[in-house]
């Protein structure tokens, strides 16, 4: 072997050893990785690579984020960023980014896609997106990469210790059921029937992820959508009030999701499924804003029209300056400050916030 060939072989061996050491370190962590599925509440840039109107890769999104506008639908950090910080795991990169390969996937991958839902058709009015079924397919693609990096036993342990975060269902209402002029479910299903439809479909999707090796699941419910600026802006409720009818509609999904979590835990004792009570936590923020140092609960920080919610945040619009005291960032999404409150309570809170255990407790199982 010549000098050049020997140097090349040595460099390759060194790279392999470094990679193996990194994998060993990741597998030794209590929570080695986060796998994120869902919509814009947990999106970190997948839609930047899709032909869609549902993007947040422009100012003023990210105005309070160190890397500016990345595709997060927030003025700052996302729910996943906070989960990662609280668990000691790096926030995973977006699946659609071509650079999401190799060592970049050792802390997990984010598959979430704005405008997506549990149902394939939800959000189609925005263009391309990755619905939940497609996100599961994308996860399978990532598994093929892992199989080239770890032996089967190591991969099984890695997946079992990781946490799957699932935040979806919002667009099945906002961009499906509640838009009966575009979609048919609003005509064809009662609110309870539609909630059951979503829960049954999501249940199959969670079982598909379980069959692929994931064992720890955080499943977030839908928040009080009748209180977001976009729904307030419809004028269906008096000024300053939430649209109670919409909140009642999403309640059927949340009740069904919690029941599904109980059933999954009974059926799969090798796993843990957790229900994140989004409705309860955000409702507490809206009902008791001073407790969390919020001043503005009924309009967006960035947007156009009534309650700044008729048209969501547009490029180069300058947002409000008191973002720390505002619950809603744009027509649909909480501010970074409100997201932090939910994240902290999901990780550390009592059973009213996270059932049957919180995320920190799940990490110890």
Provide a brief overview of the structure.
With 365 residues, the chain is α/β, with parallel strands linked by helices.
Characterise this structure.
The radius of gyration is 21 Å and the shape is globular. It is an alpha/beta fold. The protein has one domain (28-363): SGNH hydrolase (Rossmann fold, 3-Layer(aba) Sandwich), CATH 3.40.50.1110. The strands form 3 sheets. Strands 2-1-3-4-5-10 form a 6-stranded mixed β-sheet. The protein has helices at 3-28, 79-87, 132-147, 152-161, 170-177, 185-188, 191-211, 229-232, 244-267, 278-287, 336-348, 359-364, and strands at residues 34-38, 108-110, 163-167, 216-220, 272-276, 296-300, 303-304, 311-312, 326-328, 354-355. Helix 2 packs across helix 11 (336-348), helix 3 packs parallel to helix 7 and helix 7 (191-211) runs parallel beside helix 9. It contains 12 helices and 10 strands. Residues 3-18 have low confidence and may be disordered.
**What is the name of the CATH class?**
Alpha Beta
Write out the strand line-up for the largest beta sheet, numbering strands in chain order. 2-1-3-4-5-10
Question: What's the shape?
Answer: globular
> How many structural units, i.e. domains?
1
How large is the radius of gyration? 21 Å
Q: How much beta, percentage-wise? A: 5-15%
First-residue to last-residue Cα separation: 51 Å
Strand/helix succession: HEHEHHEHHHEHHEHEEEEHEH
- Characterize the largest beta sheet: strand count, sense, and whether it forms a barrel: 6 strands, mixed
Q: Which structural class do the helices and strands define?
A: alpha/beta
Enumerate how many helices there are, as a single number.
12
Mean pLDDT reading: 93
Question: Low-confidence parts lasting 5 or more residues at pLDDT below 50?
Answer: 3-18
Counting DSSP E segments of at least 2 residues, the number of strands comes to 10
